[in-house]
Please model this.
Amino acid sequence: MSVSELEIIECLTPQQRDEFIFFQWVPYQGNPYWVPPLISERREFYDKTKHPFHEHADVAMFLAKRGGQAVGTIYAIDNRAHNEFHQENIGMFGGFECLNDQAVAHALFERAEKWLRARGRTALRGPFNFSTNEECGLLIDAFDDAPRVMMTYNPPYYRELIEREGYTKAVDMFAYRREVNAQIGLDNFPPKMKRIMEKIMQRDEIVIRKIDLKHLSEEISRVQPVYNAAWADNWGFVPMTPAEFDHLAHSLLSVIDPDLLLVVEAKGQPIGVALSLPDICDPLRRAYPQPGTPEWWTLVKFMFHYKVRKTQEYVRVLIMGVIPKYRLSGIDGLLMTQTAEIAMKKGYTLGEASWILENNLPMRSVLENTGWEIYKTYRILEKAL
Model:
């Protein structure tokens, strides 16, 4: 069918946004690796009154229909904070889900591009949900494995649909994996790195401690500036506002393992942070939330697999970094080691460190020197408007 037979609707009402959310179950029907989201979480994500990202960005959600049936989705993002921080003039896209139909993909991208072009943006980049501070990147290999927590998954044909619309690689991001075992310990660090690290730790009174959840608000206010400083030079990074950081922290409270939340301090001042998460994607995939199923029942099944059966093998290193002054000191490697030792004691058998930019050579060196290997690749694509 031709593009003219497609209808593109902007989702402005709660009912239309639900239709946008519910479409995901169509292209992934029968796919054993896709992890469906909690519908309540997605509703909050797109609600301008509940998610602080919308305070500095506008999002337009589009739904493609043919013969009254949903056949694809996409949203366009005008992130003012990104453009101000990077001195760019770009828009972004996310939420791209589509049947294997180029006409549908073309109509969706055409509508998103038109919306951003009208706002004066000169390029489009993605996919992002909504920025690098959330899930992002198009999976381009390893389709026979489910994603870890807060990582993306998509069918192989999405890459071809997007590239046929004129999008090319902007950057690749890697997920590293290794077994969690004793060989990841400090004794296996390169001798030179180990000497540098031990000297700095003694000189600056380096201490690694767990985050105190009893004083979470105070901890958040101390850690947020460290997070923003540690990632400030990363490609595509946008500093999180206090409201965004607080929202992320509280949204993860019910699934975090407090033993895997670490802060590095030098003479009492925070200089680094490490946040690792149990792979809740595994129990969530087993619970399989879907439209029409009461969410309370989905959560009962999720907690059974998460807390009783404990089906999750992986722990994902989500955030790990130190402020610029302490880079190349080995402190980030020590954080990785302590995280692995804790994970091993708690029974996790596999670790994922993700995502790591292809040009983040210092972090890649730390990982590869301690036995981590790349096992998945995610890509950000872009196109001039």
Observations:
- The first strand starts at residue 7 and ends at 10.
- The CA atoms of residues 39 and 294 lie 10 Å apart.
